[in-house]
Amino acid sequence: MKIETLAVHAGHRPDLGTRDVTPAIHLSTTFERAEDGTFPGGHIYSRQSNPNRAMLEQALALMENGAASLAFSSGNAASLALFQALAPGDHVIAGEDVFYGTAVLLNQTLGSWGLKASYVDMRDPANVERALTPATKLIWIESPSNPLLNIADIRAAVEIARKAGVLTAVDNTWATPLLQRPLELGCDIAMHSATKYLSGHSDVLAGALVFRERGPLFDKVKAIQHAGGAVPSPFECWLTLRGLQTFPYRVRAQSQSAQKIAEFLNKQPQLEAVHYPGLTRHPGHKIAAAQMSGFGGMLSIQVKGGQPEGFKLVAALKLFTRATSLGGTHSLIEHRASVEGPGTRTPQNLLRLSIGLEHPDDLIEDLDQALKEL
Ligand SMILES: Cc1ncc(COP(=O)(O)O)c(C=O)c1O
Questions:
Q1: Are residues 359 and 275 part of one domain?
Q2: Which of the ends of the chain has fewer CB neighbours closer than 10 A, N or C?
Q3: What is the CATH number of the domain that holds 188?
């Protein structure tokens, strides 16, 4: 079945009592026991499971073609639960331009707990191989990376990981299961900030892990989810499931618009660089084309001059909203270094754009008039 069909039907079943086509929101935190002590509704207490979360988890597993999924209260809560399933002294390899929030989890939140992390330039798989140690347990891949849109060769990383007996996880937030299929490329886990494209309207905070196999790792992370309770509320599960129904159409349109916009920006003399893997001159273009079916709705640019010129460009835009995050209906632009804060590796003249669902010609016109202000 095609992903558009799965996205509409996954997790949805008309309620057998009321025949609702759109699922109800189950706010109850607790569920009645039968006289014999069993739970005929299938749920005990909402930290452990809830009907809306169960629907969402089923749908997300189907989206990524995984065996099972676990939903969390944010993308970072999902990543944290996976890292917590490792032991103190274990070692993780991540990209040197990994999402800032993931590096904070590895360095600060879990660094003091004894988890070790190395950061390498993942554009070359040899760097991943060189960083392996006997303690390495996980290779964390983010491709395209945030915010530089570097591409890692997922198949090559999986091959290295398999030889070393190490797990692979892909942060698939930017690509989404429409454009990139990490589990089918051999990875063990696909992670999502469902806050972004999957829910798609900038009104939900949620995250998920999808597992290729329902084995001991899944059980361990599920136990962490249950014990810690970093779970999305029934309403957030409901909103995410609603957003999921349209995500393939939204992401396809956003990806096509981003390609058009990147090609326009690529010709502008006021810019020092345009980072978008759909541009044939992008160093990761060939690998991206081999492992993605589209290049996504995110791009970043570097403005000639520096931060002041970047701020001037942003201030002159009328359709792009100055805000962090991505994957919603509104196009957003942000000065990434100031959002990341101290220790950022992001160049000061870099602006990150999330292309929304406006017509690309209108967005190009807006960028054109703002560029002329420089
Ligand atoms: C690539 C990537 N991974 C993870 C996250 C974290 O997601 P959340 O904000 O839902 O915790 C983000 C958020 O921007 C992201 O862009």
A1: yes
A2: N
A3: 3.40.640.10
Cβ–ligand 1 contact at 76 (below 6 Å): yes
- With contact defined as beta carbons under 8 Å apart, do 301 and 265 qualify? yes
Q: Which of 295, 356, 280, 346 is nearest to 146 (CA)?
A: 346
Cα–Cα distance, 254 to 260 (Å, whole number): 10
Rounded CA separation 183/237 (Å) = 23
Supply the DSSP symbol for 105: I
Q: Is the CB of 74 under 6 A from ligand 1?
A: yes
Cα dist. 245→6, 123, 241 in Å? 8, 33, 7
CA R_g for the chain: 21
Q: Are residues 282 and 210 in the same domain?
A: no
Q: Is the CB of 31 under 6 A from ligand 1?
A: no
Q: How far is the CA of 168 from the centre of ligand 1 (A)?
A: 18
CB neighbour burial string for 212-233, b if at least 16 within 10 angstroms, e if fewer: beeeebbeebbebbeeeebbbb
Distance from residue 193's CA to the centre of ligand 1 (Å): 5
Identity of residue 316:
A
Q: Whose CA is nearest to atom 14 of ligand 1?
A: 325
Domains contained in the chain, number: 2
User: Which of 195, 201, 299, when mutated, tests ligand 1's pocket best, judged by the most ligand atoms within 8 Å of its CB?
Assistant: 195
- For tokens 């991540």, what's the residue? 94
Can you give the CATH number for the domain in which 305 is found? 3.90.1150.10
176 CB within 6 A, ligand 1:
no
What average pLDDT score do residues 73-88 get?
98
Distance between CA 374 and CA 314 in Å, rounded? 11
pLDDT tens column, 138-165: 999 999 999 999 999 999 999 999 999 9
* pLDDT tens readout for residues 172-190: 999 999 999 999 999 999 9
Q: Could you tell me the residue range of the domain that residue 347 belongs to? A: 247-371
Are residues 263 and 156 both part of a single domain? no
Last residue of a domain, one of 220, 244, 268: 244
- Global confidence as pTM: 0.97
Residue 194 CA, closest ligand 1 atom number? 10
